[in-house]
């Protein structure tokens, strides 16, 4: 259970953050939310798809790490096996919160990353932000702005009827049958059928490149399946 509180340099002056990655860092999750401006870096490693919790909720882009609950196929004994870690993971245990109308840094005091003996210091000796915290602050600003832009991105996709549901049937090397369903992607045929005005509007808004990055990211399903097969084989060995 998260316990976010407003970060301050008095109560939290001695806290440090463990920055390594691992299952003991509460990172064993099959996906994490993302945003359009992050697609360029993420599409080199992960499938980017969409989910919708219910009809009352809008679509949300996510980065896929695994096929089952509590499965992150990018975690191993050495840490995180990809050169780019999504910002919604990398910024932990920090988050943006509001203090009235002002955006402020909050910290989850129940995070396993919190320590007083190891890791990166949050504050300098005399109370200023450490270089580590300054970097986290930059990440949080990017996350806040990116997540805030998602509504406009999704609005553009739905306006042109570009989002469709899909199912992925996977047969693993051990013969087991698996299906990934309940998620969404961008329909390439509908995108190709858009007229020049619609394409120009998507480009002007900055969404066209994100659309192409999302579609390109689907090629990473093969690599993710290979990771799943390797994980199963190692468990049997």
Structural class: alpha+beta
Distance between the termini: 35 Å
Largest sheet: 3 strands, antiparallel
Q: What is the residue-mean pLDDT, rounded to a whole number?
A: 94
Overall body shape: globular
The value of Rg in angstroms is 20 Å
Sheet-strand content, in percent, reads: 15-25%
The helix-strand sequence is: EEEHEEEEHEEEEHEEHHHH
Helix content: 25-40%
Oligomerization:
single chain
Uncertain segments: none
* Major beta sheet, strand line-up: 1-9-8
Whole-number total of structural domains: 1
Number of strands: 13
The number of helical runs is 7
Walk me through what this model shows:
The structure is a single chain. By secondary structure, the chain is an alpha+beta fold. The chain has one domain. It has seven helices and 13 strands. The protein has a three-stranded antiparallel beta sheet, with helices on one face. A three-stranded antiparallel beta sheet has the order 10-2-11, with no helix packed on it. Strand 8 and strand 9 form a beta hairpin. The mean pLDDT is 94.
